[in-house]
Amino acid sequence: MHTWIFDLDNTLHDASPHIFPHISRSMTAYLQTHLRLDPEAASTLRLTYWRRYGATLLGLMRHHGTDPRHFLWHTHQFPELERMLRREPYLHGVLRRLPGRKIIFSNSPVHYARAVVRLLGIDRYFDDVFSIEHTKFRPKPDAYGFRRLLRRHRLEPRRCVMVDDTAENLRTAKRLGMRTVWVTRSKRVPGFVDVRIGSLLELPRRLNLLT
């Protein structure tokens, strides 16, 4: 029986319309305040670090000695999180139909990830929410966090299925021996992806491809 490892944002819910723009604005404001930059310079630096390191946080830690917990706390505040959430239709039914353990593996901080899971009403389906703090702030696609998750739950990679909207995260999962499911509308599928789905609704019907 598989252990299902799910990404959170843009996999179990749609973060693009409201949540991701809010985080981007919050990060820019953080850089303005703590690095004393004007809005344009702060936005440029945020994007530069994101493109170079895959996460703005990594650039701030490397070049400015930023405290990651302080940064993540202040950039992931959502007074109206429930209103901003865009739920995947029939998500509960999909999760109920998947046999095996389920874990969330997210690059977001634990306070935000747990709040989203609670508001989606899906906490009962998951054994753990494995957040960026658990990776010692080495986010996906870094293999370090994957290995920590596997050790924490005593998992064999060959018995795990990684479900994610980001291809590079799946590349790492595949290298470690996991099966991979890419949630995307892309028609071009790289070799490290075992199953491509346009929506989580398709997942229970594709189980035969993951055995």
Q: Can you give a write-up of this model?
A:
With 211 residues, the chain is an alpha/beta fold. The protein folds into two domains: 3-14 and 86-210, Rossmann fold (3-Layer(aba) Sandwich); 19-75, DNA polymerase, domain 1 (Orthogonal Bundle). It has nine helices and six strands. The protein has helices spanning 19-35, 39-53, 56-64, 68-75, 81-84, 91-97, 110-120, 143-152, 167-175; strands at 3-6, 101-105, 128-130, 160-164, 179-183, 195-197. The chain has a six-stranded parallel β-sheet with strand order 3-2-1-4-5-6, with helices on both faces. Helix 1 (19-35) packs across helix 2 (39-53). The chain is globular, with a radius of gyration of 17 Å. 33% of the residues are buried. The model has no long low-confidence stretch (mean pLDDT 96).
